[in-house]
């Protein structure tokens, strides 16, 4: 049942973003920034963690989850290192996810041999 919950929650987030893209004049980059900032804000108000516990990967994989991870990393780093934690916490918290995305996308490019559009 947790797979079904993750699927419909993640799908709902994606559908809302698609509606936002089609019904407004916002560019995709701005929508992505809105999602990351919203995830960080919801994390700051302790709203996002119960949502992640309910929806699992449906809430932690989209960009909202990335914003929440950045917030948690910054919060922990500030508690440990003070003001300097603002600058290093997000990098420390998200390094594994970003590294995995880079490694797997590189491996996919080796397998599928992408070509430039002309």
From TrEMBL:
NCBIfam families: spore_V_AE. The lineage of its organism: Bacteria, Bacillati, Bacillota, Clostridia, Lachnospirales. Keywords: Membrane, Transmembrane, Transmembrane helix. It comes from Hominisplanchenecus faecis. The gene is spoVAE. This is Stage V sporulation protein AE. The chain crosses the membrane at residues 6-22, 29-48, 83-112. The keyword DNA repair does not apply. InterPro entries: Spore_V_AE, SpoVA.
């Amino acid at each position: 049942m947790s797979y079904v919950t993750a699927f419909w929650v993640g799908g709902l987030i994606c559908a809302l973003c698609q509606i936002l893209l089609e019904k407004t004049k916002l560019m995709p980059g701005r929508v992505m920034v809105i999602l990351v900032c919203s995830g960080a804000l919801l994390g700051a108000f302790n709203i996002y963690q119960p949502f992640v516990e309910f929806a699992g990967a449906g809430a932690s994989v989209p960009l909202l989850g990335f914003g929440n991870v950045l917030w948690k990393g910054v919060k922990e780093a500030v508690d440990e290192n003070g003001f300097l934690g603002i600058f290093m916490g997000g990098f420390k918290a998200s390094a594994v996810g970003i590294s995995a995305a880079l490694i797997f996308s590189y491996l996919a490019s080796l397998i599928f041999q992408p070509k430039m559009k002309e």
